[in-house]
Structure formats: structure tokens, C-alpha cells
Design goal:
Elements (H helix, E strand, L loop, with lengths): L10 E9 L7 H11 L15 E6 L16 H9 L6 E3 L6 H15 L4 E9 L17 E11 L4 E9 L7 E2 L21 E2 L1 H22 L9 E4 L4 H11 L10 H4 L6 H11 L8 E8 L3 E8 L1
Parallel strand pairs: 2-3, 2-4, 9-10
Antiparallel strand pairs: 1-5, 4-5, 6-11, 7-8, 10-11
């Protein structure tokens, strides 16, 4: 799954859409954003979703609304039903904040195999439902959001060039949320000490900076490119310190990095598709630009994709 495409005729073209709910508005709005985003009402190229498409979503928190307060079936299947599409594959990908790039790797493999020609990839999270609102070290960092892209296999040398994904499960304690998070109470009706998102910030910072920069360089190298060839990097919007440190380690100026974390916070798997959608709308990405998408999340997981727009 970490291979660059050797077939220049199997290029993946992009269309984007996103919704950006205010931080801390809760589960219902995050779900509404998800469903409005994947209807692809606002796109930068003509697309349609129908027979022959493949549907993916990445959303670990399945209680984003009363309609998805379920462990089974997957959010992808519920989304498929809402879109009125049947028979095509639909499944979730769980890789926390790196989920969208992991999804890109799945899409890339399907495209190279020739099994599917048009695919819908959705990133969505409702992290406001997972934070301990008494823990100011974490609750102020996270937000809710959703974004989607449609990927289409077309002739040419533009599109998704390479994807690299990696992980290290030995580092899981740097960032985690225990299962049954919302139902966790002690005998006095209070949440236990380790309720909500648990994060070891200083240690996670070091790993995130190293992994985000290294995996981006590996993905560029697999495409025969270097950081100097990059027109724009759209990293996971974890926090501004991490993003600036990654840019510095790669020798890239912040004028080549897209950031919206100041406005939206960390929206996990939704952060890259939201930022990509914004960058396209603002004219920051032009035809033939080299764009790098890189992310690091719980697991720990990380990955990067290189796109020739």
C-alpha cells in the first residue's frame, strides 16, 4: 500500500467539499456536516456519485448524532444509505488523525488494481464528544468537522503520485481514548481521572515533528521529487508549533504551508480535507502544483500523499 503508481495512465483526479462547524457545537452538527459535505454540492470539477463508486469514511466516534449512535453498522454504511447508493463497498478506516491519509493509501491501491474508477473518501470527527471539559490542557485544542474528496481514475500524469503510511503501536500511550468513554463514571457519578482524550504533549510533539517530516520526504522521493519541488504542504492541523517545526525540519517556508488551526482547532481526520478544500477555493493550488498531504495521529500512525494537481 506504500507504493507509488507505476502506471501514468491511472491518475487520480480530485474534487473537494467540506463543512466547518464551530468548535464544541457537539455531535449533531458534526454529523450534519458529514452528510452535507459528501453530497459534493461545491466542487472544483464536474463529478457525480453513483454506480461504480467506492465509499470510505474515517470516523472513530460513531455517536456523532442520534442516527449514528451505533458500533455496528459502520458509519460508511449509514452514509451510503443516506446518499441512496447501494451494492458498492462502504467501510470505515480507523487511524485517528492520520485516517484520511490512510484512506488515500486504500484509494491508491484500488485505483492501481483497476477494481474501481471513482471513489469517495470522507474524513470526519466529533472530538468535542471525547474531551474532558475539566482538562484545559486538551479540551481547548480539538474541534468537530468533516470534509470529502471524490477521486477519479483518468488518463494523464496528474493526480495522486504516491502515498506512504507507517505506524508504531508501541507509542499508543502518547495519545488515546478509552472505549466506552461516554459511559465511564465512578461510584460517585464522576468521570474517572483518565476519562476523555489522554495525551502526553511533549513526547508526542517530538514524534509528530519527526514522523511528519520524514514521511513527507519519503513520499516525495517515491515520486522522484524533493521538498524544493513542493508548491504547498497541507499537514494535519494538530497545532501551529508542530506545523512550523515540520516546515523548518524540511527546509520549507511557511508561505508554502497551509494552516487553519488558528480558526478551527484540531479536527482530526477532517483537518486535511477541510484545509484542502479551503486552499482550492482560495486559489492557493493551481494546475500542475505539487501538493503534499501529511498527518500523524493516535496509534501512533502517520503518512503522507503527494499530488500533482
Amino acid at each position: 500500500m506504500n507504493e507509488a503508481s507505476s502506471d501514468a495512465m491511472k491518475t487520480i483526479a480530485f474534487a473537494t467539499s467540506s463543512e466547518r462547524p464551530r468548535r464544541s457545537i457537539g455531535t449533531v452538527v458534526a454529523s450534519a456536516a458529514l452528510f452535507s459535505g459528501v453530497r459534493v454540492k461545491r466542487v472544483n470539477m464536474p463529478v457525480s456519485i453513483g454506480p461504480g463508486a467506492t465509499l470510505f469514511t474515517r470516523i472513530p466516534d460513531l455517536t456523532v448524532s442520534s442516527a449514528t449512535d451505533l458500533v455496528i453498522p459502520s458509519t460508511a454504511c449509514l452514509l451510503q444509505a443516506r446518499l441512496g447508493i447501494d451494492t458498492i463497498p462502504a467501510f470505515d478506516v480507523s487511524a485517528a488523525c492520520a485516517g484520511f491519509v490512510y484512506g488515500m493509501s486504500v484509494v491508491h491501491s484500488y485505483a492501481k488494481s483497476g477494481d474501481y474508477g471513482r471513489m469517495l473518501l470522507v474524513g470526519a470527527d466529533a472530538l468535542s464528544t471525547m474531551v474532558n471539559w475539566e482538562d484545559r490542557s486538551t479540551c481547548v485544542l480539538f474541534g468537530d468537522g468533516a470534509g470529502a474528496i471524490v477521486l477519479d481514475v483518468q488518463p494523464g500524469d496528474r493526480g495522486l503520485l504516491s502515498t506512504v503510511i507507517e505506524s508504531n503501536g508501541a507509542l499508543w500511550e502518547l495519545l488515546y481514548v478509552r472505549s466506552g468513554n461516554r459511559q465511564a463514571f465512578d461510584q460517585e457519578g464522576r468521570h474517572p481521572k483518565d476519562w476523555g482524550i489522554q495525551m502526553k504533549g511533549p513526547e508526542l510533539f517530538k514524534v509528530a515533528v519527526r514522523s511528519l517530516s520524514d514521511v513527507a520526504s519519503k513520499a516525495l522521493a517515491r515520486s522522484g521529487l524533493a521538498a524544493t519541488d513542493m508548491h504547498l504542504m497541507i499537514p494535519h492541523q494538530a497545532n501551529l508549533r508542530i506545523i512550523k517545526a515540520v516546515a523548518d525540519r524540511m527546509g520549507v517556508g511557511m508561505d508554502k504551508v497551509y494552516c487553519n488551526v488558528q480558526r478551527l482547532g484540531n479536527t482530526s481526520a477532517a483537518s486535511i480535507p477541510i484545509a484542502l478544500d479551503e486552499a482550492v477555493r482560495q486559489g492557493k493550488i493551481r494546475d500542475n502544483d505539487i501538493v503534499v498531504l501529511n498527518a500523524c495521529g493516535g496509534g501512533l500512525t502517520w503518512g503522507a500523499s503527494v499530488v500533482r494537481w
